[in-house]
């Protein structure tokens, strides 16, 4: 999906409606789209993959194989497809532990989570700061490609005079990843950020940096003359009706707020209702990189607003062009670190099968994540308090992946030919093997349709290969493949992998003439890293000069599956 298509199709409809992974939407959703509750079937989805993901997330509040502790104390999940909230889930507890060692409170003092539990969303706060910056760009008060020092003269010290606003938003400024402001006297904290020295020349490297966003928070305040929390409230949360979202939540709401960590340094005890992030806390709970508290429902509203091109329920907070900029990768020079203005893009480590060039999102250190997939008009929100009672208890990335993957697998990929295609689930491995096709007169031509949505990045490749054997399967040789269709690789390939195109490919290969009996197999071999939606194949045909050796549509009993199964969707 091109950036141009996002605008051009703003009011367009999908060719076949929702529920289709293989028919990505073009353009933004209609600005009038508002969230409504429903069932997966209301949105054309299968419920089983989502239910399985929810069940796993719930189980991880108690036991995790290979871990001493639960993955998190509590979790709230919410899944949206095409404007329909198709799943809500909550499990575990807002408060369960008394100290940093994991001493459990008496069971009658455990406080369960609910759908409206308020979580510290940590670095998801960066999205609110980014929107606030883009609002000032739209107002003409900020220019993305102007030096930050134009708005914050003191920032221009120590080699930062050429750093632009855009570079802060895309984390290419060269500033260090972190700074420990809470160890400094209050009056020295922001001046310390302004005086930082870049670790690399601006624009030459990607470094995810809290100081980038702290600086942008200060910039918003300087340009508007208002506090950042006031700007966010007036420009984002109040117009959108996000009534449970903001900084420094009212102490009267404490019973609705999930506890985070027991902190000994600084000596804060069990943190609840205050920013977990030490820098944000030291800045009064309001900072550009952290400090926002929110609920799953409120974050879903924000997600739908962006899918709508910046508007929701009659209120517009951004123009479509600004939203396009948030969904456009400006970091093509830094593979694996795709980034729009504020949003991370195409990050399979938490977006899983929803990953794509314009799939946007962010995570929070406390255990939160937001994924927005314009191609399927979907939103996945997962809020956990995985740092309760200690950050050392580990990551909740498996839960983030599970919920996004559940939605990806709930969408359909319809067969190209006939009523069913062969499907290899993303976790694999899987082989689909023919019986003996006999000797080959002239070269054997192998043709089939393939829908490939798999990992292919610096972390690994999950490949589909076709292999031939002339010795009854004792040894196998790769068949070079040529694929055509949107997003297909150019030229002959030893295997096929990739994602983001969400389209069927037509694939051809050739096996040399041989007097030995031919067998073929389609082998899907994922690694142990991240996954896509998986692989479908359809329309298998093998023919030589003498005629058809295999028609997979008519003679599917001649194919032996291991890990593959036939599916109508």
From TrEMBL:
<keyword id="KW-0378">Hydrolase</keyword>
<feature type="region of interest" description="Disordered">
    <location>
        <begin position="481"/>
        <end position="501"/>
    </location>
</feature>
<dbReference type="Pfam" id="PF00144">
    <property type="entry name" value="Beta-lactamase"/>
</dbReference>
<protein>
    <submittedName>
        <fullName>Beta-lactamase</fullName>
    </submittedName>
</protein>
<feature type="region of interest" description="Disordered">
    <location>
        <begin position="1"/>
        <end position="47"/>
    </location>
</feature>
<dbReference type="InterPro" id="IPR001466">
    <property type="entry name" value="Beta-lactam-related"/>
</dbReference>
<dbReference type="InterPro" id="IPR012338">
    <property type="entry name" value="Beta-lactam/transpept-like"/>
</dbReference>
<dbReference type="InterPro" id="IPR050789">
    <property type="entry name" value="Diverse_Enzym_Activities"/>
</dbReference>
<dbReference type="GO" id="GO:0016787">
    <property type="term" value="F:hydrolase activity"/>
</dbReference>
<feature type="domain" description="Beta-lactamase-related">
    <location>
        <begin position="73"/>
        <end position="404"/>
    </location>
</feature>
């Amino acid at each position: 999906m091109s950036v141009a298509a996002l605008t051009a199709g703003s009011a367009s409809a999908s060719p076949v409606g929702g529920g289709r992974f293989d028919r990505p939407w073009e353009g933004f959703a209609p600005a009038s789209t508002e969230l409504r509750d429903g069932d997966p079937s209301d949105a054309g989805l299968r419920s089983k993959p989502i239910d399985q993901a929810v069940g796993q997330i719930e189980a991880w509040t108690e036991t995790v194989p290979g871990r001493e502790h639960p993955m998190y104390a509590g979790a709230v999940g919410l899944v949206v497809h095409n404007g329909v909230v198709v799943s809500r889930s909550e499990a575990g507890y807002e408060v369960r532990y008394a100290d940093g060692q994991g001493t459990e409170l008496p069971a009658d003092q455990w406080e369960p989570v609910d759908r409206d539990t308020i979580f510290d969303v940590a670095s998801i706060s960066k999205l609110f700061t980014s929107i606030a910056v883009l609002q000032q760009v739209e107002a003409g008060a900020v220019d993305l490609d102007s030096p930050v020092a134009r708005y914050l003269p003191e920032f221009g010290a120590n080699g930062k005079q050429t750093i632009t606003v855009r570079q802060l938003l895309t984390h290419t400024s060269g500033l260090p990843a972190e700074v420990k402001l809470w160890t400094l006297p209050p009056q020295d904290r922001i001046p310390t950020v302004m005086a930082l020295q870049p670790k690399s020349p601006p624009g030459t490297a990607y470094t995810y940096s809290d100081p980038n966003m702290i600086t942008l928070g200060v910039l918003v305040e300087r340009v508007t003359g208002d506090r950042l929390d006031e700007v966010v409230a007036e420009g984002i949360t109040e117009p959108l009706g996000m009534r449970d979202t903001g900084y420094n939540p009212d102490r009267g709401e404490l019973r609705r707020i999930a506890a985070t960590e027991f902190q000994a340094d600084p000596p804060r005890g069990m943190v609840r209702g205050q920013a977990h992030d030490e820098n944000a806390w030291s800045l009064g709970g309001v900072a550009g990189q952290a400090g926002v508290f929110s609920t799953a429902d409120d974050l879903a509203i924000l997600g739908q607003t962006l899918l709508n091109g910046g508007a929701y329920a009659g209120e517009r907070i951004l123009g479509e062009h600004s939203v396009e900029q948030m969904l456009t990768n400006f970091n093509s020079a830094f593979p694996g670190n795709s980034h729009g203005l504020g949003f991370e893009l195409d990050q399979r480590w938490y977006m899983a099968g929803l990953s794509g060039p314009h799939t946007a999102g962010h995570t929070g250190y406390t255990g939160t994540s937001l994924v927005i997939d314009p191609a399927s008009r979907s939103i996945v929100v997962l809020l956990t308090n995985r740092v309760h009672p200690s950050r050392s208890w580990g990551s909740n990335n498996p839960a983030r992946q599970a919920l996004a993957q559940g939605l990806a697998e709930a969408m359909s990929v319809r067969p190209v030919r006939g009523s069913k295609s062969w499907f290899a689930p993303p976790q694999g491995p899987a082989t689909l093997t023919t019986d003996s096709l006999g000797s080959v007169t002239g070269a054997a031509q192998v043709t089939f349709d393939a829908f490939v949505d798999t990992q292919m990045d610096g972390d690994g490749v999950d490949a589909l290969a076709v292999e031939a054997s002339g010795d009854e399967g004792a040894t196998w040789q790769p068949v070079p493949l040529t694929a055509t269709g949107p997003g297909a690789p150019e030229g002959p390939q030893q295997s096929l992998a990739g994602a983001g195109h969400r389209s069927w490919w037509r694939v051809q290969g050739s096996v040399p003439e041989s007097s030995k009996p031919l067998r073929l197999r389609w082998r899907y071999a994922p690694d142990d890293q991240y996954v896509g939606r998986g692989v479908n194949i359809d329309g298998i045909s093998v023919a030589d000069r003498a005629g058809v050796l295999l028609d997979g549509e008519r003679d599917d009993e001649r194919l032996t599956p291991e890990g593959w199964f036939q599916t109508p969707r």
